[in-house]
């Protein structure tokens, strides 16, 4: 057994949340969340603004404590075994994590040091991580000269340099143009193919979730309201509509499933405020 292996970890799910609850004041941002991410899958956590996705992810990454319930990562309890969990994770947060005043290589090298990549392996691992996201040629340029898509790929390289078994990405393609979005997903897919790494991603893009995720969970008001492969969720809504005798012009999309699950709550929480927040975040990221 390696030092990073918990008893039974070979069979353990990549992530297992049971009854996870996290409150800000008297508001339960995460409210009894049960969630399982299987080893090797790309799992999409979807939900409107304020659903509790980022809070749940912060608990899984050990950035927030778990006040109620339990979170295990490859069998390790985040409460008791925080450092072991951190060694297994790569995390790309919503906020900018690259330093514009450093080159791409320096940014990735910084993460290699922080995440305990041994000195002997460091240079090689940094080069490999940059190559994996197609930044080999730009590695020695200042990150300040990178496009938004390149910055996101650089952040991906930062998270990959420690060879994580679980990569967690919080809205990885927000603010990117369609070509850059595809690039980010293709690089995630290629690394996963090569390493068998598990991927947990939050996104507001139903199209991307449909295309790139093996399974998705729709989260609303702190809990999972629907779970399955995108095809299962779409087919389930189609069947419910047929059973209810509803006319259907076209097969349901994942967006339709999302609206069906979140219902009127979407209008309360999303609407204009969501647009403003998203736009501001985007401007901060790519500006
Ligand atoms: N630091 C904080 N202090 C107080 N309330 C917070 C804090 N962070 C989040 N919340 C609240 O907790 C709830 C869940 O927020 P969270 O950011 O987890 O949602 P989310 O699903 O990730 O949303 P988004 O899609 O906008 O990122 C929201 O009601 C939010 O306002």
Automatic annotation (TrEMBL):
Domain ABC transporter: 15-246
UniProt GO MF annotations: ATP binding
Keyword field: ATP-binding, Nucleotide-binding
SUPFAM superfamilies (alphabetical): P-loop containing nucleoside triphosphate hydrolases (SSF52540)
Family matches, as SMART domains: AAA
Alphabetized Pfam families for the sequence: ABC_tran (PF00005)
Region described as Disordered: spans on this chain: 264-287
PANTHER family on file: LINEARMYCIN RESISTANCE ATP-BINDING PROTEIN LNRL (PTHR43582:SF2)
Name of the featured protein: ABC transporter ATP-binding protein
């Amino acid at each position: 057994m390696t030092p990073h292996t918990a008893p039974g970890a070979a069979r353990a799910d990549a992530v297992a949340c049971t009854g996870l609850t996290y409150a800000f004041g008297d508001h339960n941002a995460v409210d009894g969340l049960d969630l399982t991410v299987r080893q090797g899958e790309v799992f999409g956590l979807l939900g409107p603004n304020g659903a509790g996705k980022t809070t749940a992810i912060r608990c899984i990454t050990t950035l927030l404590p778990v006040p109620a319930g339990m979170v295990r990562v490859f069998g390790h309890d985040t409460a008791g075994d925080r450092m072991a969990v951190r060694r297994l994770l790569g995390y790309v947060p919503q906020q900018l994590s690259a330093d514009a005043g450093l080159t791409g290589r320096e940014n990735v090298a910084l993460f290699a040091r922080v995440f305990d990549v041994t000195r002997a392996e460091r240079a090689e691992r940094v080069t490999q991580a940059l190559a994996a996201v197609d930044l080999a040629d730009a590695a020695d340029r200042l990150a300040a000269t990178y496009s938004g898509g390149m910055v996101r790929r650089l952040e991906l390289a930062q998270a990959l340099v420690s060879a994580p078994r679980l990569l967690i990405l919080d809205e990885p393609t927000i603010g990117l143009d369609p070509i850059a979005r595809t690039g980010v997903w293709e690089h995630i897919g290629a690394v996963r193919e090569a390493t068998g790494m598990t991927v947990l991603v939050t996104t507001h893009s139903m199209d991307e979730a449909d295309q790139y995720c093996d399974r998705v969970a729709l989260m609303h008001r702190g809990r999972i309201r629907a779970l399955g492969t995108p095809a299962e969720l779409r087919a389930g809504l189609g069947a419910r509509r047929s059973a209810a005798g509803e006319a259907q012009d076209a097969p349901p999309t994942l967006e339709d499933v999302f609206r069906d699950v979140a219902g009127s709550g979407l209008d309360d929480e999303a609407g204009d405020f969501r647009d403003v927040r998203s736009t501001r975040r985007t401007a901060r990221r790519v500006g």
